């Protein structure tokens, strides 16, 4: 296991929300190997509860969840936790889609990753999102990732 770049107890906490357990597992493994503390859920409503109970620097959200639309969830999390950076992941939408561009323009999320994704793309997006969360979440403008 790689040595964490973060001080003990100071590891940024990331929430992964995807209705596919295998995708949660994959993202958890990618991100935890980078030293992040990871919490996963397959349910949008549980994600809202978790955001209300814990502090997350970053939330990765699947655009299509079984119980809640990912874009709607992003907006609800934004209201509840404005300093949290949100990254949308999707096998349904593409970078060029109107909904994605509008979400980026409105600073609803800081980045977008399409499935299937590249491991390095996930790592890079996590690093960028954590930096942005330290500066105030999505408030300082959009960033978009790969495609």
CATH architectural grouping: 3-Layer(aba) Sandwich
Question: What count of domains describes the coordinates?
Answer: 1
- Spatial gap, N to C terminus: 29 Å
What's the number of extended β-strand segments?
5
Which strand-content bin applies to the residues? 15-25%
Strand order of the largest sheet: 2-1-3-4-5
Average residue pLDDT: 86
SS-derived structural category = alpha/beta
Main sheet, how many strands, which sense, barrel?
5 strands, parallel
Instruction: Look at the structure and give the CATH class.
Output: Alpha Beta
The CATH topology comes to Rossmann fold
Radius of gyration (CA) equals 14 Å
pLDDT < 50 runs, ≥5 residues: 1-8, 139-147
Please identify which CATH superfamily we are dealing with: Response regulator
Question: What structural keywords apply?
Answer:
Rossmann fold; disordered N terminus; 147 residues; single chain; alpha/beta
Q: What's the structural blueprint in terms of helices and strands?
A:
Blueprint: E1 13-17, H1 21-32, E2 37-41, H2 44-53, E3 58-62, H3 70-80, E4 85-90, H4 98-105, E5 111-114, H5 119-134
Parallel strand pairs: 1-2, 1-3, 3-4, 4-5
Helix pairs in contact: 2-3
Explain how this protein is built.
The protein has five helices and five strands; from the N terminus they run βαβαβαβαβα. It is an alpha/beta fold and 147 residues long. The chain has one domain: Response regulator (Rossmann fold). A five-stranded parallel sheet has the order 2-1-3-4-5, with helices on both faces. α2 packs parallel to α3. The chain is globular and about 35 Å long.
